[in-house]
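Task 17 of the worksheet. Students: predict the tertiary structure of the chain below and write it out as structure tokens. Keep your answer in the requested format; marks are given for formatting as well as content.
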Amino acid sequence: GDIPVGTKVRFMKTEVDNLIRASSKTANESHLKETTDLVFVVSCAGRRFVMNRLTEEELEAIDGAVGAGAIISGFYSFAELAPSSRVNPCDLHNQTITLTMFRETGPRFDK
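Model answer:
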């Protein structure tokens, strides 16, 4: 896309191992205190392109953080829209991963 003259830009570079560690840490910190039944993952297709086959390791790291029994499902998107802060409107976020965790309360049935 076009970048107007005078616009501040930031170049970023990361290590794939750091992305995997960050996903595991986020899953661990966000993990529900009891059992997580479902983890819904939305990962950017650009992230998939950068990580290549290591996306499987990232999902394994998330699985290890939330524990046995959690179902992991999701899809690849082409960037995500979300606010950067409470006062800013939605921005386009690229090469991100989003985890949403669910737990069912009440009587449990065997899966």
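Marker's comment: The first strand starts at residue 38 and ends at 44. The chain has a mean pLDDT of 85.
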